[in-house]
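Technical annex, item 7. During the second reporting period the consortium partners agreed on a shared format for inverse folding records so that results from different sites could be compared directly. Each record opens with the tokenized structure and is followed by the designed sequence. A conforming record, contributed by the partner at site C, is shown below for reference.
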């Protein structure tokens, strides 16, 4: 039987289940990726599991999110992470080494392997012929401990690329075109696989850009072939021996088919406040901007900075514009310096920041109130930038640089200059000085974890109750993101290892009273929230499930869920339910009380059952999508209790 690349990767790593779309499968995980906004909990979970040593081929902990050291919280946690990587046998990427996704691609990614990361943009490494997926931290902790990763078998969405990108159009515009066509739910339950003659003109880093923002389509992952371009990239990184060819069989088929002619794409932009709100740049040209920002895992390549540098070279940015340059890896920054591109950016008025996630996650570079920010980042969810009432547009480096020169959103094709064609350095820098290799086991087993005062253990969770009588504390609309459930940014993320403190920020963008109201329900049986479509889109941060659970959330009832957040809710014992009849959403109001008796048996016996609305003589038919394994996890109150009961890491 002819197989596509996704099917080959899954078949090679399948340890349980059948490759039938929608069925739960278990996959062997070869590599893991954690970053500091999520990794602190992962390391605490590994400690709680009594893990002796990582059982993966390679696991890496990156420090790239929480780089601002305004007090001791972040540096204390950096020391904790360093000690944990030494103890458990992980790679450790130090602060300043760069963003996890491009650094992993440069140093550790291998074609044919599986990669699981506690960051939703882990899918970026699908550019290397890997099955790379984001997940909640506890799932990654279990993978590090040698357990399979469980996910519903995706459908494979084959996208045939033809043609070649015109001048002033780049890889960011390719993924924008797909978001324009399909919006933020278009990839749910699917792996996107690219093939066709158009691939020849896309570099490995171009593919990274496209794969990265597959997360914004809601996809389980994005897969590119491992072809001669990937071989070239690994050769330049001094890792040609890690290359293996991986392409679809000649007669391979796909569950969904689409064609994209690269020659027909124009400069595109995502308007506030969703990556799916895409229009041609020309439609919003002339809109004034306060900030233009180049960098992030969504545009991490040498050419992404170099083309911006060439556009602004020997010119000066417009008055009143903050032109922020956020390098994505120390290795790449060195090359940009060598090629004089940093000098061009600085001479034009650019502001150079350290290699890391920075403003993408709201860690610095927050825009002024009431002003427009133009960014090459992957997301523009409300408040993600660090400014609560923000107005963030997403674009390509070409559009960002052109707009920095004019002070307003500008179609780069209108600039009075030839399109600058940049090439990667002939001998790119290979820098491993800030990537520490795992310690030998005999040395590692004697390492003690360094815990600062900001680290608090995860509280114990009780089992799922058999009877509920719980109020609906929030009723929300569609596309609620994890940034809205629990914000990122410099105010919040330093408490990533302190659940009681970080929970104070829960749902604050939606309702500032939620924290206290939720806390008041903890000893009274808890509460529920109601939402629309695509609930929990965005970041994989498990804090967005764990903090509401800490505040008493027992049931999330919505029209449908984003994949990773749904899994995180299950992992922490929050029952994720959907409406059987979506119009029943309109029957519920904030303050209504949901009731059920014999709940444990109802969950076990079938996927559908009724909830009553107290005092209204109404029955709401609901559905869960839990596998038998997940039902067991839910009944025990979450995966930590389940792990302890199974003693799977001992």
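Designed sequence (site C submission):
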């Amino acid at each position: 039987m002819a197989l596509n690349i996704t099917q080959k990767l899954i078949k090679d790593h399948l340890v349980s289940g059948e490759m039938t779309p929608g069925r739960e499968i278990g996959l062997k995980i070869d590599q893991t990726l954690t970053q500091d906004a999520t990794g602190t909990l992962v390391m605490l979970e590994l400690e709680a599991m009594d893990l002796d040593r990582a059982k993966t081929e390679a696991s890496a902990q990156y420090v790239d999110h929480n780089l601002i050291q305004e007090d001791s919280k972040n540096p204390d946690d950096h020391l904790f992470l360093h000690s944990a990587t030494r103890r458990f046998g992980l790679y450790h990427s130090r602060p300043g080494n760069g963003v996890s996704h491009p650094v992993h691609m440069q140093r550790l990614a291998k074609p044919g392997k599986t990669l699981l990361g506690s960051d939703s943009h882990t899918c970026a490494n699908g550019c290397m012929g890997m099955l790379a997926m984001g997940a909640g931290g506890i799932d990654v902790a279990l993978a590090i401990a040698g357990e399979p990763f469980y996910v519903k078998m995706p459908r494979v969405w084959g996208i045939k690329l033809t043609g070649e990108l015109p001048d002033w159009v780049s890889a960011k515009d390719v993924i924008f075109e797909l978001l324009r066509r399909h919006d933020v739910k278009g990839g749910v339950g699917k792996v996107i696989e690219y093939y066709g003659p158009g691939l020849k003109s896309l570099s490995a880093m171009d593919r990274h850009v496209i794969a990265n923002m597959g997360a914004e389509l809601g996809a389980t992952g994005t897969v590119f072939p491992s072809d001669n371009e990937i071989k070239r990239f690994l050769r330049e990184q001094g890792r040609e021996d890690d290359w293996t060819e991986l392409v679809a069989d000649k007669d391979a088929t796909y569950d969904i088919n689409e064609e994209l002619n690269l020659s027909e794409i124009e400069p595109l932009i995502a308007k506030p406040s969703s990556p799916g709100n895409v229009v041609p740049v020309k439609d919003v040209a002339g809109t004034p901007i306060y900030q233009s920002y180049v960098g992030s895992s969504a545009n991490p390549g040498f050419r992404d900075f170099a083309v911006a540098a060439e556009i602004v070279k020997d010119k000066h940015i417009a008055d009143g514009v903050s032109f922020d340059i956020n390098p994505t890896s120390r290795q790449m920054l060195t090359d940009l310096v060598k090629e004089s591109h940093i000098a061009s950016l600085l001479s034009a008025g650019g502001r150079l920041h350290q290699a890391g996630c920075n403003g993408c996650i709201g860690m610095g570079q927050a825009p002024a109130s009431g002003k427009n920010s133009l960014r090459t980042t992957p997301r523009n969810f409300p408040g993600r930038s660090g400014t609560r009432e923000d107005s963030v547009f997403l674009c390509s480096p070409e559009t960002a640089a052109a707009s920095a020169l004019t002070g307003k959103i500008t179609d780069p094709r209108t600039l009075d200059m030839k399109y600058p064609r940049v090439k990667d350095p002939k001998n790119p820098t290979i820098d491993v000085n800030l990537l520490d290799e795992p310690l030998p086991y005999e040395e590692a087993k004697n390492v003690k974890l360094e815990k600062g005062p900001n680290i608090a253990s995860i509280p114990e969770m009780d089992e799922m109750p058999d009877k509920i009588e719980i109020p609906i504390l929030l009723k929300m609309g569609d596309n609620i993101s994890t940034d809205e459930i629990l914000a990122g940014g410099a105010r919040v993320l330093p408490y990533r290892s302190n659940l009681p403190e970080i929970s104070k920020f829960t749902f604050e963008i939606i309702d500032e009273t939620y924290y206290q109201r939720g806390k008041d329900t903890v000893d009274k049986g808890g509460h529920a929230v109601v939402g629309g479509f695509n609930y929990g889109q965005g970041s994989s941060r498990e804090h967005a499930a764990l903090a509401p659970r800490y505040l008493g959330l027992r049931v999330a009832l919505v029209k449908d869920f984003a994949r990773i957040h749904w899994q995180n809710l299950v992992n922490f014992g929050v029952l994720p339910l959907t409406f059987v009849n979506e119009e029943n959403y309109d029957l519920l109001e904030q303050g209504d009380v949901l009731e059920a008796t014999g709940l444990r048996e109802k969950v076990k016996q079938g996927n559908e059952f009724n909830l009553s609305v107290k005092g209204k003589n109404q029955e709401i038919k609901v559905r869960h999508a839990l596998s038998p394994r997940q039902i067991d996890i839910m009944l025990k109150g979450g995966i930590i209790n389940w792990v302890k009961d199974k003693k799977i890491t001992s």
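The radius of gyration is 24 Å. The chain is about 30% helix and 20% strand. All partners now use this format for quarterly exchanges.
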